[in-house]
Every structure is written in C-alpha cells, then in structure tokens.
Amino acid sequence: MDQSLAEFYRKYSQQIDPPGIPSGSVLRHPDVQLTLERRFFNQPASEYSAYQAKILRAVVERIQQAIEGNDEEEVSDHLMTLLATLPHSRPTVDLSKTLVSYVPPVGFDADIDPIEILEAKKIIGSGPNTGLRTWEAALRLASYLHSQPELIRGKRVLELGAGTGFLSIFCAAYLQPETVTATDGHEDVLVSLEENVERNSHHYQGTSHPTVQRLYWGDEDDLSRIIRRRGDATQPGPSASDGIDELSTTQGQMNYKNQLSPSSTERPYDIIIGADITYEPEACKALAETLSRLAKANPYTDILISATQRNLQTLSGFLDECHGPDCGLRVEVVKYDVPPLNKQTGLFHNIVSPIQIFAMRYSPPEIS
Ligand SMILES: C[S@@+](CC[C@H](N)C(=O)[O-])C[C@H]1O[C@@H](n2cnc3c(N)ncnc32)[C@H](O)[C@@H]1O
Questions:
Q1: Three-class SS of residue 88?
Q2: What does the alpha-carbon distance between residue 223 and residue 215 come to, in Å, rounded to a whole number?
Q3: What is the pTM assigned to this prediction?
Q4: Smallest Cα–Cα separation from 107: which of 7, 1, 5, 2?
Q5: Best mutation site among 126, 186, 223, 279 for ligand 1, i.e. most ligand atoms within 8 A of its Cβ?
Q6: pLDDT for 195-216, tens place per residue?
Q7: In whole angstroms, what is the distance from residue 354 CA to residue 350 CA?
Q8: What is the spatial distance between Cα 142 and Cα 347, in angstroms, rounded to a whole number?
C-alpha cells in the first residue's frame, strides 16, 4: 500500500480526526479506490459512525475534485452508492460504541494485526462511564511501554482503572507479559472490559489470556482478593477454589466464579500500571492507599501511572498522598518524549494536553 494510504488507514482505523486523507491525485486511481472499498469502506452504510461518514464524504469530494473535467475517470460505483445511502442524522452517535483499531508505533511498512476495542469514542467528562472509551494517557503509557518492552516482558502485570482494557490488551498482545490482570471499579465498565479482552483472544498466543477482576479503590474485600490472587494466570474453567471470585460475563450479566490456583499466592505482581485515573479528588486518596497497600505486599513492585494534567491541584494532591508518611511511595517523573501527531506511526494522540508518567515504588521508613 502507498505510504500515505497506509498512514491514512491507521489513523482512520483509530478514528483520528483529521486522519491525513491523501491528495486527490492519489485517491482517484482505480486501484486505490479498490483499496478504499475493500479496507476502509467495506461495511453497509447503515453501520457508519458519524466519523466514518464524515471521512467517506471528504474522500469522495477529494476524488471528485481531482477528476473534474476528465471523462475517463470516475468515483467508483461502490463509494457513490455508500455515499447515497448514508443515514442523514445520528442524534445518539456520541454515546454509541464503535470499533477502534490500534497498532503499536512502528513503521508504516510493517503489517501489524491491530487490537480492536469497542468503545464510546466521544464520551467526555467524568462519571461512571469514563471507562467506556480509551484515553490519551493510556496511549501515551502504551507508547512508553512499547519503547521499553523489558518493563513488561515476562512480568506479572496488574492494571488499575483499566476502562476499555486497551492498555492490558496492548501489553498481552504485543509485549509478552507472563500474566495480565485488568481491574476496574464500575460494573458497566467491567462488562465492556471483559468483552474487549475476549474480542482480542486471537492475540494472546504464547502469553496468558488477561484476567478481569473488580477492584474498587478503597474496597477492602476487593483489595485483599487482589493481593491474595497476585499475578496468577487465568485458569481455563473452574479449578481449585479457596473462596476467591473471578469476574466473567454471560450475555452481559456479571458472574463470579472461583478460579484460584493454590500456587498463585506465592506469585506477586511485578508491575502495576494505570492511565488517567487521577482526575477525581475524592477517589485519589483511596487510589494512593490502594497503590501503597499493593506495593507494601511486594516492595519490588514497580508502579507506572500516566496522568493527564487537567487540574494541577488534584494531581498534586494525589502525589502528596502517595509520598506522604501513610503511603510511603517514592515518586519520580519518567522522562519520555512523544513525537508530534504528524510524526507518529501508531497509537496516535495529540500532545497538546500535558501528560506525565510517574514511576513509584514503596520506600520503607528508615529505622533510626
Ligand atoms: C478516565 S478512565 C481511564 C480508563 C483507562 N485507564 C484509559 O486510560 O483509557 C478512569 C477509569 O477509572 C475507573 N475508576 C474511577 N474511579 C474508580 C474507583 N474508585 N475504583 C476503581 N476504578 C475507578 C473508571 O471506571 C474508569 O475506567
């Protein structure tokens, strides 16, 4: 595929706006239009999100402008039919879910099977639904982990506030962890998280299938279940039980089944990750305490938190809590520069909103 078309394809699949639509002189060629039909615009028009419809319109307009006055070239029948049958308005599109594809930041000539996340791309603000879309801080942390794969390779990974599951799924698909446990505190988010983990099952070859668990920060039962479970891999089907609950879904219903193998209690998490989870002042204390409890359970555990700086007071309140005497976490800023959007090759995200990654570890008080 032409380089500009390959870049457009990746950005369009991740629903980046604008996606860098190639010039009309590239798009008008019949073989390029065939690629557009087969790879970009291959669903029935009734299934198009507002974003997809907008890009289809822009593409056709660009082709039309490029071929004006040339009787031998035309917009393909397929694209014209799609355009003519697009629904006119979609009042609820902002809350509806759409399938978003993400590939790691590698050269456009690399043919990478993307991970696919079903998410409500246009959700904004706070509330119990924020986890139904993937946020820029997660893309930033995934880019960083992709640049430092040894942080994840062979490691037992725990994610807090996993939302759509993008970060956990990304680690399991591309970075070869030993195990991944994705947690969240909200029931609707857990259902969609579980579905996204399943949706990407074909990616977990040679690495364990991520496990989904409920962990509401500050909930003592959730926390002790996670600490006892630690970095254990998913067991296929019910197995030895000691009262530990694992989350699964059946037709959108939440079920809890016992699935702990006895050996799991000896296997702590190596790394805890979290993205865009430091935005609610009321939740930050509980989050800091949760991180501290997990880190105290294994002082060698690394913690990486990617934070979008929306409200500096909330963020500094969280950091103060973390390195205060109760939590005892040592906090450092990770130096990581992401190229600007027009130089990125995957995990596209804007760098206008400041995002920082913090590395933490438990630092036991010195004995005097
Ligand atoms: C802004 S979203 C980020 C989701 C994901 N990490 C990402 O970056 O795409 C915040 C996530 O934290 C979860 N969350 C918020 N408060 C929580 C709490 N008290 N306990 C556990 N999870 C919580 C939400 O359900 C949501 O999934």
A1: coil
A2: 6
A3: 0.77
A4: 7
A5: 186
A6: 999 999 999 987 889 999 999 9
A7: 9
A8: 8
